[in-house]
């Protein structure tokens, strides 16, 4: 590859990452505006609720990891969600130093209301893609994630 080709490849990669970031933010903002804001919920709060709901009970460090946030950020989000009566903290059954999160009944009701609405908003956000295009994008994104999460 020539120096000119290297620059072009770098430029294409940079532009792709820029558009990937903008697209992810656009979808996030759409879901926040249409579904979450009316319920005074942030995207991060929703992701935490959805993560804990799917697992039923989950240790905080695993919630932070799956939600893609720091443990410090999770602490603030959980403080807010707990204050609203949506999530409960409890000591880990085998190690009292660890904390486990679980949704309250109120949190379970809220997430059951939000999931169909958020899925509908996500479908709308991607509705301009044909099913075959959506499959290609999904496969490419999964591959990118696997590539970047692979140990080096």
Automatic annotation (TrEMBL):
Taxonomy, superkingdom: Bacteria
Protein's name according to its UniProt entry: HTH marR-type domain-containing protein
PANTHER family: HTH-TYPE TRANSCRIPTIONAL REPRESSOR YETL, TRANSCRIPTIONAL REGULATOR, MARR FAMILY
Stored Pfam families: MarR (PF01047)
InterPro entries in the record: HTH_MarR-typ, MarR/SlyA-like, WH-like_DNA-bd_sf, WH_DNA-bd_sf
Domain (HTH marR-type): residue spans on this chain: 13-146
Species annotation: Dactylosporangium maewongense
């Amino acid at each position: 590859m020539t120096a000119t080709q290297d620059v072009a490849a770098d430029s294409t990669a940079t532009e792709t990452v820029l558009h990937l970031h903008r697209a992810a933010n656009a979808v996030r903002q759409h879901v926040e505006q249409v579904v979450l804001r009316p319920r005074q919920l942030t995207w991060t709060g929703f992701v935490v609720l959805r993560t804990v709901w799917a697992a039923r009970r989950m240790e905080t460090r695993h919630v932070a990891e799956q939600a893609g946030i720091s443990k410090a950020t999770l602490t603030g989000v959980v403080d807010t969600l707990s204050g609203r009566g949506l999530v409960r903290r409890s000591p880990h059954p085998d190690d009292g130093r660890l904390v486990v999160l679980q949704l309250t009944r109120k949190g379970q009701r809220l997430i059951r209301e939000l999931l169909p609405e958020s899925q509908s908003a996500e479908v709308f956000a991607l509705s301009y893609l044909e099913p075959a295009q959506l499959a290609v994008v999904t496969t490419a994104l999964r591959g990118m994630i696997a590539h970047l999460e692979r140990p080096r």
